[in-house]
């Protein structure tokens, strides 16, 4: 590879092709610290969709002082190849029969347009705003009686704490809920009522 070819590849990376790949590989082998040669080799591997591209990209990123220039050049090559694919798809579709295979060119174009639109809009998932924790509200809720909590243990606690009205209410609910034990709950109910009166 001569100086003019090398300069031409730097200015026009889209001109990299299958024949430039061995030349750049040899150049990087001889001058491993040459950033420009490494960048061109990576771009060439990208253009040729070579399996060594990812490994070369990682290595080149280490050697480059300015990785942004490499990214910009890769993006330019990608846009160019996308435009070429879009322009060739309708031409290929026109050459095919008038069957449903002609829609493949339109579908490919639509996919790229959708992808570009998606990237431009930068969609994001928003989380619903939860209510801020309030200690005052939590303490208020903790002292509110839960009507659906009915147990003999809770009634006994209320009775022991001299909250006889609450104990009576729970004993009444328990006698309705468990009719087979209504005599037992009736005795406890009577005891709580007597304590309330005294």
Write a structural description.
The chain is mainly α and 198 residues long. The protein has 2 domains: 3-95, no CATH class; 147-197, no CATH class. Helices cover 71% and strands 0% of the residues. It has helices spanning 3-11, 20-30, 35-47, 53-63, 67-95, 103-121, 135-143, 152-160, 164-177, 182-197. Helix 3 (35-47) runs antiparallel to helix 4 (53-63). The longest helix has 29 residues, at 67-95. The radius of gyration is 39 Å and the shape is rod-shaped. The chain starts with a helix and ends with a helix. 16% of the residues are buried.
Oligomeric state of the chains in view: single chain
Class of secondary structure makeup: mainly alpha
Q: What is the total domain count?
A: 2
Low-pLDDT parts are 97-102
Helical proportion, percent range: over 70%
What is the 3D shape? rod-shaped
Helical stretch tally: 10
**Alpha-carbon distance between the termini?**
111 Å
Sheet-strand content, in percent, reads: under 5%
Mean of residue pLDDT?
A: 82
Largest sheet: none
- How many strand units? 0
Radius of gyration: 39 Å
Instruction: List the secondary-structure elements in sequence, H or E.
Output: HHHHHHHHHH
């Amino acid at each position: 590879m001569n100086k003019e070819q090398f300069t031409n590849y730097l200015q026009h990376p889209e001109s990299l092709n299958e024949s430039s790949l061995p030349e750049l590989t040899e150049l990087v082998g001889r001058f491993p610290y040459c950033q420009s040669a490494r960048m061109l080799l990576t771009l060439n591997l990208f253009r040729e969709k070579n399996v060594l591209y990812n490994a070369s990209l990682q290595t080149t990123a280490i050697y480059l002082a300015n990785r942004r220039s490499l990214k910009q050049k890769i993006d330019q090559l990608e846009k160019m190849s996308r435009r070429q694919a879009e322009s060739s798809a309708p031409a290929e579709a026109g050459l095919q029969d008038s069957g449903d295979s002609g829609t493949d060119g339109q579908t490919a174009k639509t996919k790229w347009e959708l992808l570009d639109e998606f990237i431009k809009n930068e969609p994001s998932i928003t989380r619903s705003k939860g209510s801020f924790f309030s200690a005052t509200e939590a303490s208020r809720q903790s002292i509110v009686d839960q009507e659906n909590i009915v147990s003999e243990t809770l009634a006994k606690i209320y009775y022991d704490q001299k909250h006889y009205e609450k104990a009576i209410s729970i004993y009444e609910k328990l006698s309705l809920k468990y009719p087979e034990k209504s005599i037992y709950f009736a005795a406890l109910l009577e005891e709580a009522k007597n304590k309330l009166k005294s």
